[in-house]
Amino acid sequence: MHLDGQYAFSVAGILAAGLKVGQELEQERVTSLQAQDLDEQAYQQALRFLSVRTRSEAELRQYLLKHKVAEDVVERTMQRLRTNALADDQQFARAWVENRNTFRPRGQRALTWELRRKGVAPEAVQSALADLDEPALAYQAGSKKARHLDSLPWIEYRQRLSGFLARRGFPHSVIEAVISRLWRETHGGHSTSDDEGIP
């Protein structure tokens, strides 16, 4: 809608307010409608951003600020998103960990780093990782990689698989146990001349 030849607020805002063409508005009402319109625009921006994937609260806030949304509008938008269960770092962290566990298993160290990078608070990260089974996840990740390394001698097999699992954030103790298990499963428990150090 235009007032005195200048854009004032959106048609959606007009319809929501039950306005009619030619209706006179007091300045206070105009200001209120303009504020509502800004809030609605920011909320719709956030919904579009969320349509790609779930986001942390920090990601949502940064996105809106990057798009020149005023801080007070951002805070009202975040509150509205929380009220509608669309912004919840606890839920986001759990979903992130679950997705990683299913498709690209990671250790606690890597998952912590990823979630903190998304701006998730330490307590939400800790809660999401409370039941993480690192040995099972390392085995899941390692077994896929190990299929491509079966023809290698033990030392190279261990080095390559160890590096892969370390980059996934698994601790050394878990890595060593998983590599030994995978080697024995693949090679029937048989040792080779260069397998020194296999437990």
Write the layout of secondary structure elements.
Blueprint: E1 2-3, E2 6-7, H1 11-17, H2 27-50, H3 57-66, H4 71-83, H5 89-103, H6 108-117, H7 122-128, H8 134-146, H9 154-167, H10 172-187
Antiparallel strand pairs: 1-2
Task: Please describe the structure with a list of short key phrases separated by commas or semicolons.
single chain, 199 residues, mainly alpha, Arc Repressor Mutant, subunit A, 3 domains, two-stranded antiparallel ribbon, 10 helices, 65% helix, elongated, disordered N terminus
CATH architectural designation of the largest domain: Orthogonal Bundle
Q: Evaluate the radius of gyration.
A: 27 Å
Main pleated-sheet profile? 2 strands, antiparallel
- Could you say which structural class the secondary elements and strand pairing correspond to? mainly alpha
> So, the CATH homologous superfamily of the largest domain?
Winged helix-like DNA-binding domain superfamily/Winged helix DNA-binding domain
Briefly note the CATH topology name of the largest domain: Arc Repressor Mutant, subunit A
Task: Order the strands across the largest sheet as they lie in space.
Answer: 1-2
Averaged pLDDT: 85
- Percentage of helical residues? 55-70%
Shape estimate: elongated
- Strand fraction band? under 5%
User: Are there runs of 5+ residues with pLDDT below 50, and where?
Assistant: 1-9, 192-199
Q: Give the total of domains.
A: 3
Total strands? 2
Q: Total helix count?
A: 10
CATH class of the largest domain equals Mainly Alpha
End-to-end Cα distance, whole Å, is: 76 Å
Give a written overview of the molecule.
The chain is an all-alpha fold and 199 residues long. It folds into 3 domains: 2-87, Winged helix-like DNA-binding domain superfamily/Winged helix DNA-binding domain (Arc Repressor Mutant, subunit A), CATH 1.10.10; 88-132, Arc Repressor Mutant, subunit A, CATH 1.10.10; 134-199. It is built from 10 helices and 2 strands, in the order ββαααααααααα. Residues 1-9 and 192-199 have low confidence and may be disordered.
